[in-house]
Amino acid sequence: MHRVSARLFLAIALLAAVASRTAASDGEENPFSDDPILTAGSIVRGQNPPPPQMRVAQGLVPQPDPYYAPSGVCPPVCPPTVSPNGTVCLPPMDPYSACPAPVSCPWQPFHVGAFGEFLYLQARNADVPFAVPQNGIVIPGSVPTGPVGVADPGFSPGFRAGGFVGLGSESRVIGTYTWYHSTTNTTVDATAPSVINPLTLFPFTFNAGFTAQQATANYQVDFQLIDVDYQVVAECCSQYWWGYSGGARYARLTQDFTANYPFAPPDGSTSLSTTSSFTGVGPRAGLEGERMLFPSCGLRAYGKTSASFLVGKFNSSYLQTNQFNGTEVNTSLKQDRIVPILDFELGLAWLSPREHVRISGGYLVSAWFNSITTPGWIDAVQSGNFQPGSDTITFDGLTARAEVRF
């Protein structure tokens, strides 16, 4: 009986203590009621809807959240994440890499294009020395008395024309036709008693006592190219792009040289005519790229290079005729060769705001290796070995291009 009474008394005491503590707490002020950071109205960014009783170590005073769009429309920053109760727009983790601005690759919006290009080039390493004034007849002991007459091709115009067809957003097929022609006329005069020494004639076909005070030469160099390339963009961003290409090239190179020496009798007027032409076809590969310089005005720097390996044949001829003797020398040579061609171009380009128009200008170098040049062919005939050396003829100069894209 005493044990039951004791237990009952203890329970009544505990209930009384709890009731008095509750009454005291109802009269006290909550120390966290004025803290804006730990209020029930705090929200967590990205949570929808915000929980009714969420306490966080760092929060915000309730206000419109720019990253939460109940209507389902996000600011145009990143792709939105759709939730059942609305749209949560998460901010980019790295503003320099996340959600970059859209980048348009060189031909992404375009299906076809056409271009025309003006070339102003000069042939080098193909000059032909053909005459020199000399003090008397060509015998041992005579010496030159004036500058050597050289048939030197100068700068001459040419052109390129072609177009492309897009095959997707990052590739296209390009067709290009190139034409170039150069011609030069040179005259050498000698003042008596000096006479002209003919440097290109076959030895021992004229008398030692010949006399002539003038010699003329005409020299023509021209080439034609047909290129078909498949080009792919390898990398593209807002500041630059570069790509590679592969295809085939057809080439024809022609060198025609004539010289006339109006010797007095008994030698008589003597003429020389030589031709060296190459026709070949082979594979071609290249690299091309552009770098943005001033985005606000569309100015860019560009560069491109390509290598071709043409399998073909050189056809060379040498014909010397005389006023009295008729044909004095007549020979020819056919020789198979592989001719590598290396092209390099560097310049500046301007693009219209929508990139439908591209205008560029730059410097171009084209080198034809393992070639038979006119001076090399003449030396081979005069020496009698008929093995022209492996020469390199180059073309360099300015280029200007206009391109439209649709």
Fill in the keyword field for this structure:
mainly beta, 406 residues, 9% helix, 10-stranded antiparallel beta barrel, 3-stranded antiparallel β-sheet
Give a structural overview.
With 406 residues, the protein is mainly β. It is built from two helices and 16 strands. The strands form three sheets. The protein has a ten-stranded antiparallel beta barrel. A three-stranded antiparallel β-sheet has the order 1-3-2, with no helix packed on it. The protein has a three-stranded antiparallel β-sheet with strand order 6-5-9, with no helix packed on it. The protein is elongated. The protein starts with a helix and ends with a strand. Mean pLDDT is 81; it is low at 36-47, 53-60, 65-84 and 86-102.
Give the termini separation.
107 Å
Order of helices and strands: HEEEEEEEEEEEEEEEHE
Provide the low-confidence segments as ranges.
36-47, 53-60, 65-84, 86-102
DSSP helix fraction: under 10%
Largest sheet: 10 strands, antiparallel, barrel
Describe the global form: elongated
Q: Given the helix and strand composition, which structural class is it?
A: mainly beta
Question: Proportion of β residues?
Answer: over 45%
Could you give the order of strands across the largest sheet?
4-7-8-10-11-12-13-14-15-16
Supply Rg. 43 Å
Q: What is the average of the pLDDT values?
A: 81
Per DSSP, the total helix count is: 2
- Quantity of strands, as a count: 16
